[in-house]
Structures are given as structure tokens and as C-alpha cells.
Amino acid sequence: MSSSPHDLARRAFLGRTGLALGGIALGSLLGRDARAAATRGGTRGAVAVHHAPRAKRVVWLHMAGAPSQLDLFDPKPDLARLDRQPIPDSFTRGERFAFIKGTPKVLASPYRFARHGQSGAEVSELLPNFAALADRLTFVRSMHTTQFNHAPAQILVASGHERLGRPSFGSWASYGLGSENEDLPAFVVLSSGKYGPDGGASLWSSGFLPSVHQGVRLRTSGDPVPFLSNPPGVDAAGRRNVLDALARLNARALDRTADPEIATRIAQYELAFRMQTSVPELADLSQEPESMRRRYGIEGDAPGFARNALLARRLLERGVRFVQLYHWGWDSHGTSSEDDIVTSLPARCRECEPASAALIEDLAERGLLDDTLVVWGGEFGRTPMNEERDGSKFLGRDHHPHAFTLVLAGGGIRPGITLGATDELGYRVVADPVSVHDLHATLLHQLGYDHERFTFPSQGRDFRLTDVAGRVVRALLA
Amino acid sequence: VTAELATRDPANRLLARQARPRLEIETLRDQSLAISGLLDRTIGGASVMPPQPDGVWAPVYSGDRWTDAEGPARFRRGLYTFWRRGAHYLTFALFDATSRELSCTRRARSNSPLQALALLSDPAFVEAAAALGARALAESADDAGRIERAFQLAVLRAPDDVERAVLHELLARERARFAADSTAAATFVAHVRRALPASPRDPSATDAEIAAWSSVASAILNLDEVLTRN
Prior knowledge:
- The complex is a heterodimer of chains A (478) and B (230).
- Chain A is of the alpha/beta class.
- Chain A has helices at residues 5-17, 23-29, 34-39, 69-72, 77-81, 89-92, 128-132, 150-159, 169-177, 236-257, 260-283, 290-296, 305-317, 344-365, 436-447, and strands spanning 43-44, 57-63, 105-106, 113-116, 121-124, 137-144, 178-179, 187-192, 216-217, 322-327, 372-377, 381-386, 397-400, 404-409, 417-419, 421-422, 429-431, 434-435, 455-458, 461-464.
- In chain A, a hairpin with a 2-residue loop joins β19 and β20.
- Chain B is mainly α and 230 residues long.
- Chain B starts with a helix and ends with a helix.
- The longest helix of chain B has 20 residues, at 161-180.
- In chain B, α5 packs across α9 (207-221) and α8 (182-191) packs across α9 (207-221).
- The interface between A and B is large, with 77 and 78 residues.
């Protein structure tokens, strides 16, 4: 085999970095000017799609704590009939609950449901904006999961596995599809509410994928991206002085060693400099008209879900591949008015639902909904029974893995349908069950990937987002 | 690959060359602390919490807080940095440090803009740059000698003429900038005060001089040749 110095450098480069680098490095490899490569826009993904994609990007609105499907999406008249009576043993024999002890009593929903739109989707009075959008939305009433505690259930929804260490969906999307905007990360996370999600940073971990694909959490106070601001006393001119010197010195090293990784490094320092401008610009909601801020329900400058929803639209508009929102506080146990279904659940709905609906409509008006997958929902469902922890008089429901409802929109998902059904008390799925893996397989399908062939090798085997399960739910496809 | 090596041993049978991986982040941290003279070499003891921004540390099911270390503990080796599965020290996580949720046979070696931001703005690296700048100021009497000294400490060789010229130009620009803006210089020096030698300070080491030399040191510490094993 002939070995010119150029070949050696190329092999060293390919061997060392493998798929870890995106299009910037490849651009350099092809002999393009590093700076030009970085400003061209778009980092190529590592994996070609398997078929024509219906969606290019995803926004996942995760209602952390798990909203009650029985009070929002899945009306059960039998709950009213059996209200406060012990639930028949046939439902709960052999069951274990997170908090419920003894024989629990059935709990009727205090909320009225009505049919909406041409599709006649049933939506609770707590969600008037979703009701108005019913024909754009897809309700999956037959979701089920294996986990009934928040952190593992959230991690399962985020990464396809209940334990820590697997790449999250957003990281897979970033790895496979790359970025459409060279000035912003491909996978962005926003969190609102009193606390972050129980799963913590594991929810946006890149696992065994190269860390460049990990979710970047834009924070609501301080720097939106870590270390975005210059240190105190250093201004943009000073940073530019350092970077100019650094670029010249590194270019000299590149001449000397012909290592294309140096070109990548030069480009990444320049991208970092551009992000110092692009990210604050992105986060500056004062650029939006007051009418738009009102539409999302943004009040003042306080952080919150509505702000994050509008930020999500700005991110998607700018080509960010995967935007993950978390909002705390849906864990309606009924131990106090802070977590019951009478006071707390409506409050969470008011915080999240108008802005969620505004986001979907806004995306539709901008022509972005067609190729943006919107997912709205929690990590599991809630019991048809009142929890009554320690005799609590507040009404609430315990964690329930067997059935919950998820809302989808856009991205080539068939709008205006309600898929699946639960039994007369909403305890178990009785038609068209959809597991978390099935959901992931379906969403990956819309992004252009066969979930069984979209893999990454780690520890001696090829891993996938759907682990060893999952099937595409054809009934959901438009 | 130099022309000479490529001619004498095109297939690298003599193993005179090899890949140039970026150093792992713990080593990078240790290296910049060592170059700048800040490194605390104490062996053993409890884990420490080097500074990291508020709000990034989010452990699973926990209200524990991160409290930035003060004193020598701030400058301990990276291996003593407090670590919890599922809640990582931000800068290490940005550089592919494993989550320790699974055993790892090979750490990824990414090269991202967030890494550039961390190396330029993480207080650990800003303090190292300031300390290296102050060290160069103290250990040589003139600009030429100081640039030689700082470069030699970091790169383990003397700069060539082009490198020398680039660094002198950077020094001149930053010196002018900080001389014209004493507030910026004072603000910067206050920010890095924990990394600067305690009194008595050389009277020529004004805030503007320290800040300007910190910029030069920051450029040197961010050189690919410094971040990479050669």
C-alpha cells in the first residue's frame, strides 16, 4: 500500500475520530477552509436516513410528574358511577403502588369532557386550547410503560432505557441527522417550574454517543449556555484579540503537522465566538411582538413554561434539531392543595396548555408544523383510584404505569385521531397498546430512520434507541 | 508528519510518530494548573468542588448543593473533583468524561465549541491563565523574556519567530486595551484574585499588566499543541 504523508494524516484522522466529528471536520478533510466550513451552516449527520423523512425536527414538551389522563384526555363515566367505592379486586389483585396502601377507592374526575372539532376528540374542560385545536392533534390513549417512579420513567421516555447511561432521543437525532444551524447546538433542553425533572441531566445525556451530541440546557438565569459570557473585565474586543492570535498560531501548527483536527479546533473556537452572539440573540424575547408574547401567555420577564415554549419556536425556526422542554409539578398525589387534582392540576394546565397550543398554532402558521414532531405528555399515567395517603382529604391519584395518554402533532402524524382505548375504569389498555419503545420507533420512522438499523456500537454490541423492542405504529402515520 | 520522517519511514515502522489525541480533561486541568504554578499536589483526602456555574448541578432525587472550593483545595488535581453518577462536574462532562454509569473502555474525544468556551471562560482556566501571566511577569525582566518563559512552560520549546511576533502583537493590543480601561483591568484582576500571588506584589505588576499578560497566557494555554499530546 502506498503511503504518502497526506494519506497517513488522513488515516490517522479517520482512525482516531471515527464518527465523532460532524461536517466541520469532514469539510476540513476535503481541503476546505475551516472558517468557511464553519460558517456555511449545517453540520452533516453521521447516518444517512433510511427512507424519505416526514419530519426534520422534534419538540418534546415533557410534563414532568405525569399529568392525569383521566382528568384531561380519557373520560370514564364508570369512575363517576363507582366514585369512592372500593375498586373491584379484579383490577388490583397482585398490584403494587408507589404510595397507595390497602384497598383503594375509585375517584371520579371532577371535570367535564366534551367532544371537539370534526374529529370529535374528547378533551377535558381544563384544556380549552387543546380542545380548539382538536383536529390538529393526535391523542394516544393507549400508552403504557414499565416504570412507576419518576426518574426511571422519565429516563425511559428520554432514552429508551430505565437506567442511566443510554443516549437520549435528542442525542440520537443530533448524531444521526446533524445540525441545521452552525451557530447553535443541535439538541437543546429547557426546564421550568419549581424544580427540574427528577431524572436530572441524565435525561439529556449523550450516553455512549460522542458528547458533542449531548443536550445543551439553556438556563433561564445567568448564561444560557455554560461559559457563554466572557470573564469579568474581558470584552468582545479582548476575546477577539486572543482568538485572532490563537487562530494564527494554530494555523501554523496545522501547516507543520497537517493534522486536520487542528482545523476543526480553529473552527470550533470561531463557532464558540459566534455563539456568544447568536445565543443571546436567540434568548432575547423582546424581539418578539407584544402580541406574540401575549399569545404564549408570557408575563413580564419571569422564567416559566410559556417563555420556554416561545424560545422553543425560536430554536426550531433556527434549525435546532431537537428541543426538549420539561415543566415540573404534574405529580398529582393529593397530599395537599399543592399536588391535588382540584387546585394544583388546573394550575399546571394554565401554566402549560395555552403556551403549548400557541406553539403548535404558531408552528403551523410558519409552515413548520408539517415537518416538526410535537410530543406532549408525561412519563406515566395516574391511577383511577384516590390515593388518600395517610387519610388525606385532598383528591389525588397515584403513579400508574399501565395506561396514559400522550398528545402528538405535526411531523406527518395523522391529525384528528384518538388511538387506543382503556378498560371501563381506565386501568389497563385494551386496544392498540403503544409502549415507549413503539413511540420511539414511530418517531424515528418519521425522522427517516428504521429504528432497528439506526445503531451505535458500544461495549461490544450495536445499541439502538429502542433497545431490543419497539414497532412502528402505522395507524399513527398520516 | 515532517517531510524527513515521511521519507525515512513512510509506514511508521519505527513508531517515531503517532496520533495526536486531545488530552483528557482531568489531565488538561492538571496541566494548566501545573504550568501556571497553581497546582496543589497534596495526595489523598476528600473530594473537592472546583468552581462551576450556579444551577448546572442537578443530581437525581437530591437537594444537595455545590459549594465552590476556596484556598488550595480549589487547585487540586482533577481526579479529586467531586463526582456523582447522574450529576457531573460541568466542565469534565463537556469534555467527554464518562458518566460512570457504565464501565468505559474508550472515552470519546470530541472537539466542540462548548469546550472552547470552557477553556476560555471557566474560572479554573481563567485563573490558570492569570497565574501563568503573573508568573511570566515575575520570572523575567522584559517582555521578550516573559513571552519566552510562558511559552516554554506551556509548550516545552521556544517559540519560533512567527509565534513570537504574534504573541508580541497580542500583548501590545491587550496592554493598550487594558491601559485605556482601568475599570476592566481592575474587574478582571478581582475576578482572578485567588490565583494571584499574595502580597507583596511587584509594583510593576499593575492591574493592566496582569490582565494583558493573562490574555497572552490564555492564548498560549489554548494552543492546539498544548491541548494535544504530541
